[in-house]
Design a protein that fits this description.
Layout lengths: L1 H4 L1 H9 L7 H19 L24 H14 L3 E4 L2 E3 L1 H15 L6 H9 L10 E3 L5 E3 H11 L14
Antiparallel strand pairs: 1-2, 1-3, 3-4
Helix pairs in contact: 4-5, 6-7
Length: 168
C-alpha cells in the first residue's frame, strides 16, 4: 500500500504538473515534419521514372509493382459501367471499388499480389463466403473473379501494361 500513497508524487515527477509539451514532444513533431517534407520532395514516394498507374492510358505502364497493378484494376472497376452484386445487393463500379479498397487495407498489402487480390478480396465476401457477381450491359450475370481477370487481360490488348514487376 505504500507505493499507492506515493503515486501522486511519482506521477507529478514522471508526467509533470501542469506542464506544457516538453522537448520530447517537440522533437517528435519535428521528425514527423521532416519525414513528410522528404516524402513530398521525393515526389510523393514514386520511383524515379515511374508514372502514375491510375492516370495512365491502358497499355502505357510497364513494370508495375503489385500494389500499382491492384490499383490499376481497381481503377478499371471504378470506371466500369457494370453492376456489382455483393450479397444480393447491387452497387455501382465506384461503390464496389471503394469497398474493395477498404477490404484490401484491412487485409494488409505486404504480400498481396494481383492474382491473390482477385482471388481473396475481389471474388467473394469474407463475411458470408458468397461469390461476388457482375451484371454486364447485356444483362448477363457472371462471377466477379473471372470478370476481373478478363479486364486485366483485355486492358492493353495483351496484358503489356500488366507486366510482372521487375527485379529491383
Amino acid at each position: 500500500m505504500a507505493w499507492i500513497a506515493g503515486w501522486p508524487v511519482m506521477r507529478r515527477r514522471l508526467v509533470g504538473h501542469k506542464r506544457k509539451a516538453g522537448w520530447p514532444a517537440v522533437a517528435v513533431v519535428a521528425v514527423i515534419g521532416a519525414v513528410l517534407a522528404a516524402f513530398a520532395w521525393r515526389g510523393g514516394g514514386m520511383r524515379e521514372g515511374a508514372t502514375d498507374p491510375t492516370a495512365a492510358e491502358p497499355g502505357q505502364v510497364k513494370g508495375l509493382s503489385e500494389r500499382e497493378r491492384i490499383e490499376r484494376l481497381l481503377r478499371i472497376v471504378e470506371r466500369s459501367e457494370v453492376i456489382f452484386i455483393r450479397n444480393g445487393v447491387e452497387y455501382t463500379g465506384s461503390q464496389a471499388a471503394e469497398h474493395l479498397r477498404r477490404k484490401l487495407e484491412a487485409a494488409g498489402t505486404e504480400q498481396m499480389t494481383l492474382e491473390r487480390f482477385i482471388e481473396e478480396i475481389g471474388s467473394r465476401s469474407s463475411m458470408t463466403g458468397k461469390a461476388y457477381h457482375v451484371r454486364l450491359a447485356d444483362g448477363t450475370v457472371m462471377d466477379a473473379g473471372p470478370w476481373m481477370r478478363r479486364q486485366r487481360d483485355e486492358d492493353s490488348g495483351s496484358a503489356k501494361g500488366w507486366a510482372e514487376p521487375e527485379d529491383r
